[in-house]
DUF2182 domain-containing protein
Amino acid sequence: MLHRPLQALPAGPLPLVASLILAAVAGWAYLIDMATDMSAMGGGFLAGPTFVMWTAMMVAMMLPTAAPAILVFAATTRRLPGRSAPLPYLFAGGYLLAWTGFAALATAAQWGLHELALLSPDQALGTPTWAGVVLLGAGLFQWTRLKDACLRGCRSPMGLVAQGLPDRPGRALRAGLRLGLYCTGCCWALMALMFVGGVMSLAWMAGLTLCILLEKLTRQPRRLSQGVGLGLIAYGGWLLLG
């Protein structure tokens, strides 16, 4: 049970499924509202709204990709007596806590790029050279052992609790945090591509969400991630040489 693959997805309790859907929809609704009114960013860099925007992006993009793991966790802990009901929510909270940390780092990165005048008005890297460098770096990362190791952790979430079932709130929160850290390590380079397409580009958000979801669910994740890496390397090289 602890190593149950994500493809064998349980139905999950209805309140948990509804909560995951509601949180993801709320995140996407917030981002769509901001994308249709870029003046919400104030025409410059505002740390508070930028951090909220990145946090909403992480909820909207990453929570759907983590839903299979959360439901598997819920199925694993469902037989625990008494207090098992809150555990999947704490597991999901720990997962999002890791991505909230990434949102803080992304906010700092955006501030730095803004101060260096490297961002266009739509919050994308303003020159093909810098965009090519980011694409090339993200593509190369897709071929690294670190990417493979973190992806394995994302795809086998119950392996993180093999040494002891997280039957208490603190353990469930920590298990979710560990999963979130694995996923952050796996996907941070792909997330950096938002600075290529534009931080508020809904098309890039949707495309990256689909790519990350497929990496977690496909039967041949290494081939997919390396294929994506080749595409990113080719695109980045074209920008650098063009």
The chain has one domain: 14-241.
